[in-house]
Every structure is written in structure tokens, then in C-alpha cells.
Amino acid sequence: MNPKKHNLLYSVNTWLSYNISIRYYGGAHYIWCSPVFSIKNHPASHATPPPTSCPSDIYHNLSEEVRRRDSHSAKIKENRSGLITGAQIQHGKGIITDVELDEIKEIIAAADYSDFRPLLYLIPFAGVSHLLKEVPVSDRAHPLSQEYIIEELPTELFDTIELEKG
């Protein structure tokens, strides 16, 4: 499947991640994304993303872990760690100050389960094609899955939604 044939890219991030990016990074978001939301509408013969990189699976699994307040949630722990790493990178670039770095770390440490609820990012392909970086094969969840990184996705280039439980 050629990504240029897709109209949308999908990414799942936490509410906390979204709001830290808005408040501290000028609305620039670091994301991994895929042109495939769910494998349900794809033939078994097509290469589709495994659960760890499929936006639908990520969204629903994280939503359930947040709802049930799973203190062993690997995804929430990974998100906390990633947010701290991201803040350190932004600090190194001079985007945030020492005080803001400390504040972000404090916010992450104090965050409640509900702050890690998932948001689905809907990203029109045409508006971001120039920002896409293909994930190296060695870093993909499956060698044939289509996975991309956008290092600084402006807020105005995508929409977010929260899916209803069901």
C-alpha cells in the first residue's frame, strides 16, 4: 500500500502529552502515525500494523487501562518516560527553560490516570506529507507496517477526537 493513496494518517497520544505540547512547545507535537486506523477493514493478505502500532488497538487498550486505573500499565509508564525525555530534548533545544523543565516533570509526576486518556489524532495527509519521516525497518512493530514520525506537527494541521466507549 502506498501512503500517498491515503487521505488520513492516525496517531494516538495522551491528553497529557497533547496539553504539554500546547502549553510549553508552541503547539508542536512529536508523533508516530499510520495510514491504517484499524485492521478490520483490510484483507488478511495486506500487511497491517500489529497491535503495538495499530492506532485503533493502542487507543482501545490505553483507554481500558486508564478506565481501570491499571497501576502496572506499561503504556502509561512508557508515556511518562517519553514525556520526560521529550521535555529534556525541548530543553536542550532551548524551547523551554530550566523552570519549565522542572514544572513539566512535576506535572508528569502528579498526573492522574485520567490525564493519560487517549486522544486520536486525525491528520490530513496532504497537509503533512512534507513533514513525514519513514520509521526505519528496525524500529517498526512489523517490517512491512507503514509507520511514520512527525517531529513537529503543528496543532493547526490535525484534529483530535475522543472515541466513545463501546
Task: Give an overview of the whole structure.
By secondary structure, the protein is of the alpha+beta class. The chain has one domain. The protein has five helices and six strands, in the order E-H-E-H-H-H-E-H-E-E-E. It has helices spanning 15-24, 55-67, 74-92, 98-110, 125-128; strands at residues 8-14, 28-33, 118-124, 133-134, 148-154, 159-161. The strands form two sheets. A three-stranded antiparallel sheet has the order 1-3-6. Helix 3 packs antiparallel against helix 4 (98-110). The longest helix has 19 residues, at 74-92. The protein is globular, with a radius of gyration of 16 Å. The protein starts with 7 loop residues before the first strand and ends in a 5-residue tail after the last strand. The relative contact order is 0.25. The model has no long low-confidence stretch (mean pLDDT 93).
- Overall, the morphology is globular
- The fraction of residues assigned to DSSP E strands is 15-25%
**Separate helix tally:** 5
Average the pLDDT over all residues and give the rounded result: 93
Protein structure class: alpha+beta
Strands in their spatial order, largest beta sheet:
1-3-6
Largest sheet: 3 strands, antiparallel
Number of β-strand runs: 6
Separation, N- and C-terminal Cα atoms: 30 Å
Q: H/E series, N to C?
A: EHEHHHEHEEE
